[in-house]
Amino acid sequence: MHVTMRRLSLTIVATAVAFVVVAVLTARTASAAAPEGFTLRGEFDARYAFGNLVSDPVASWNLRLSGDLGWAILPGLNLTARAHAAASFLDLQPELGVDRLFVQYEAGRTRLTMGRQAINWGLATMFRPTDLITPRDPTTSDESRPGKVLATLYWRTSPVTGVELVAGEDVYAVRAGVAIGQTNMRVLGVSQPGARHALGVDFEGGLGGLYGEACYDWADGAPEDYSTAGTLGWKKAFGSGKLVFAEYHRKDVRQGGIHLPFSFAAAGITYPLDEFTTASAALVADLRGGTKTATGTLSMLVADDLDLNFGVVVSVVPSGGPSPAGAGGAGGDTRLKGQAMVGLRWYL
To answer: In whole angstroms, what separates CA 67 from the centre of its chain?
Structure first.
């Protein structure tokens, strides 16, 4: 057993070293050979994660190498690409993928983008009911999101109004916005033929830091199966890099005569400790299921191209699992769950 674990550890270390060497050589060679108009950036991310800290601890290495390429083909015409290679030593499954590959043309008030891209709709910090096309992964703390093959057209119809059209991969959408003073307001519609359709609205800016978004969606051919969701939040930036927020989210699902209500509340703070270190913390509460989750992160800039990140997640879960929707909270005993992470991010 000890021999097997030692071999596995040596394999992990050797693979990590090889991963970094290949990343550095590839990035430097490509950057040196790149013609004018090319930009190439790389990022190497290594994380050591600890799961099930309270009951049955499990540890795993996760490595990820990603690269971003930009090419100014002609004035106003650009090519963007992003790809990644990743490996997890918990399931020993490598992963390769192309996240972005699109051409963008911009002229005057019009911008046309075609290819594998991401649509960043939804403006809330935690709960985004209008983020419907390429939604952000809610389990991550960053803004990473999947890509889809789409064609998008943005037209700024006036200095205070604009329209965005999206089509592709069985989805069609439109969003129109207007700026009233410091406040931006948008309405949107999304159609997935044979699946679901949605209408939404959002607002942000001014109003003392208040923002919100809401969505109504229904099944294609079955309008009695629908859901409504809304988020109302407040966000305030102060000082240099300091930020606090609070949100309330409500969702009601009606399907087959069954009503399932969900309610969540969240609050958080980001606070720079010094010029190179930033701490953040957030608390999310399931107001009906009873689960409460606290997260904390610490990011340290140790060099111009190197970050260290530490994170911890602690959840208090009802011992019998979340209570049925509408039960008004869970009673009885609770159990504690915890996760931790230490990571290194190297910008190549």
So the answer is: 18
